[in-house]
Amino acid sequence: MKQTIRIAALFCAAVCCLAAQNLFSEEGEKEALLESLRQAREDWIENASFYGHFIDRSGSFASEEEALAAELDDAGASTGFACKLKNKYRRQIILPPRDRGGETVPQATFDKIANDRFSVTFSRNAGDYQDRPEGGYIKKLSGKPGASFRDLNEVTTPWWVFTAKANLLYSQREDAEIPDCEYTKPEDGRALLKVRETLPPMEEGDSGLVLDQEVTVRTDTEEPLVERIVTFLYGEGKETPFVKQIVDILEWRECGGVPVPTRFRWVQGHIDPAVHKQLRFPPWTCWEFQFTDLGERQPTDGDFKLEVRAGDNIPPLKRIPENNIIDIDAITDDDLDLSGIPESNQK
Question: What DSSP string runs through 124-149?
Fold first, then answer.
């Protein structure tokens, strides 16, 4: 009897020991993967270099299934180009002319250029899309490595996967740390990361948002590649999500020795049936971003110079340069009138 009890005790101890080893093994694998993702981010900031034109198609649908399976055409698609050179980024989006009650609305352009010290935002013929139809503004950044990287969080850019505000892997925090997350061991060369995070209110008086994300990461490649991000957004204190987002990164290409996403699809929809009844449009939208000529030429310093007009208003720039060219690398504090601008708004 004593021998039986002793064997049972040894067996239980062995099981507990193996369970602990597995736990530590999984924790070690998780930390190794997160460290690889951090290194991939730093590699992107320091080494990714590319130039390419893109097309961004979109459509509205009645269900998530239709949006995911949709074959989008070029009608009404936006175009433009995106490039990166060292710590500089630029993207230009062009919205095509369209008919508005028999009147043709001209093509609109939206530009964003940034280095680690400044960012320039500029638009032309944008009255149908924002309050200010012409002009832009310059923002002073922290000057720290990666500041321009964090300042670019547009959806329709190849770096959205790395910079979106609601993104597990590369957040907008100054320290750019990855939030604590659950880890599922790789199957078929893919690992799963899960996180829940509370986002602060965007404006005073608003409630916060709770973010649930599941991120699928390929682990059978030289660098880990984000393959899918599924996001649920909840109102703070609510048990049912009101929005679901799915991002699928479909194709990659190496540029400067770093993988750059060349095609991805972003699907978003309202999943609360009560909201569906209030909408005057289909509840699901699909966007598909695709580079058409990525890597066919290298970026140059000239790609980061913005051509403007003498009468354009771009505060807090004191005056438009005589050659009507704003060079992101040539801007200094002396070119800006920062009086009356709070310090928090200068970074």
Answer: ES-TTTSS--SEEEEEE---STTHHH
Q: Which two tokens stand for residue 219?
A: 């682990």
Q: How far is C-alpha 203 from the chain's CA centre?
A: 21
Range of the domain at 330: 49-346
Alpha-carbon distance of 143 to 149, in angstroms, equals 11
What total number of domains does the chain contain?
A: 1
Q: In this structure, are residues 272 and 242 in contact, taking their beta carbons and an 8 Å threshold?
A: yes
Tell if the pTM clears 0.85, that is, is over it.
no
SS3 151: helix
Do the domain assignments include residue 4?
Answer: no
**Beta strand 284-291 pairing with 50-61:** antiparallel
Q: Which two tokens stand for residue 175?
A: 């320290």
Cβ atoms 40, 32 nearer than 8 A: no
Contacts of 7 (CB under 8 A, 6+ apart): none
* Segments of the chain with pLDDT less than 50: 1-24, 154-176, 344-345
Buried b (16+ CB within 10 A) or exposed e, 185-209: eeeeebbbbebeeeeeeeeeeeeeb
Tally helices (H) and strands (E) across the chain: 5, 17
- Tell me if 180 is assigned to some domain: yes
3-class state of residue 250 by DSSP: strand
- pLDDT at residue 177, as a whole number: 59
Cite the beta strand spans of the chain per DSSP E: 50-61, 78-85, 88-95, 98-100, 103-105, 108-114, 118-124, 135-140, 182-187, 190-199, 209-218, 225-235, 243-255, 258-270, 284-291, 305-307, 325-327
Q: How many Cβ atoms sit within 10 Å of the Cβ of residue 318?
A: 10
Pairing of strands 98-100, 118-124: unpaired
